Amino acid sequence: MVYTESIRGYPYMRKEQLTKEFQISAGTVRTRLFEIEDEIKTGRYNDYAIIRDGNIVLINVLVFIDYLTYRRQLLDRNARKYAPAFQKSPHKDNLILNFRLSFYILTQKTS
User: If 83 and its partner were Cys, which of 36, 70, 76, 91 is the partner (CB 3.0–4.6 Å)?
Assistant: First the structure.
C-alpha cells in the first residue's frame, strides 16, 4: 500500500491559502506569482494559470507546484531548456478533483 499526501483538492487557491497550505511566507508566494506571470509570457503556462479579477487573484495549484519543482532550472538561462514542458496528466487531475481529501490512498497489487 502506498500513501500519497495530497493538498486540499482545490484547482485554484488564493495567495493566503497557498501560504497556509505550503507553509511559506506571503512574500514568497507573491514573488513566485510574479515569476509565474513571467513564465506565462514565455508560453510555459497558459493564460488560465493565474486568474485576476480586481482584488481577486487565483493561482492554479498544479502550475504553482510545477513552478516550485522546476524554479531553479527555469531561472537559469542555460538550464531552462532541460526543464520538461508543463503538462497536466490525468493522474494529477484526479488528485486535484478529489475535494477536501487530506490523504489519497493508492493500492498496488503485488503479483
Answer: 70
